[in-house]
From TrEMBL:
GO cellular component, one term: nucleolus
Encoding gene, per UniProt annotation: Pop5
Keywords, ordered alphabetically: Nucleus, rRNA processing, tRNA processing
Source organism per UniProt: Neopipo cinnamomea
Name this protein carries in UniProt: Ribonuclease P/MRP protein subunit POP5
UniProt record similarity statement: Belongs to the eukaryotic/archaeal RNase P protein component 2 family.
MF (Gene Ontology): ribonuclease P RNA binding
Annotated compartments: Nucleus, Nucleolus
Lineage: Eukaryota, Metazoa, Chordata, Craniata, Vertebrata
Record-linked SUPFAM superfamilies: Rnp2-like
């Protein structure tokens, strides 16, 4: 099965510049990652990683990015991600970093990880709440995390776009 030869790398875009959010788009992330791979691993590494490489999912609001690559080149990809220093959009460069959260064999395992990760983040926020209104808001978000997880159990095992 061609699905078994892929890896999905779940990352988050970290930036102190609020304008960076507006350039978290497939093209900008793809170019920044390819640039980093080229700098770290040269043309050969870039060629290896480029086969099947794509930005599979992106959420600019949360800064979440899901990258897909071949199983045999995911270590090259992951080792280059810390060297992403900025995203570029409309000739403007916005400093940022890519933090790798999880590497999975399917999109589903990455989704499950992300649900648990978001729940942990919300629980940390809950501990730092200063008033009851904030607490209620975060409790509501926590509840929606667990409901989403239960709903995803019934879906297809893999949400992929098929064969290369």
């Amino acid at each position: 099965s061609p699905r078994a030869v892929r890896r999905y790398v779940l990352c988050e875009v970290l930036s102190d510049d609020p304008r960076c959010r507006q350039c978290i788009e497939d093209r900008a992330v793809g170019l920044a990652v390819r640039d980093a791979i080229g700098r770290v691993h040269g043309d050969y590494g870039l060629a290896c990683c480029s086969i099947s490489f794509t930005v599979k999912y992106l959420n600019a609001y949360t800064g979440t990015v899901l990258l897909r690559c071949r199983k045999d080149s995911y270590r090259l990809l992951c080792s280059a991600l810390p060297f992403v220093r900025y995203l570029e959009s409309r000739a403007q460069r916005y400093p940022c970093a890519l933090n790798t959260l999880h590497v999975g064999g399917t999109i589903r395992t990455c989704q499950k990880f992300l649900i648990q990760y978001n729940r942990r983040q919300l629980l940390m926020l809950l501990q730092n709440c200063t008033n009851e209104e904030e607490r209620q808001c975060i409790r509501k978000s926590l509840l929606s995390c667990s409901l989403t997880e239960e709903q995803s159990q019934s879906g297809d095992e893999e949400d992929d776009d098929g064969i290369e």
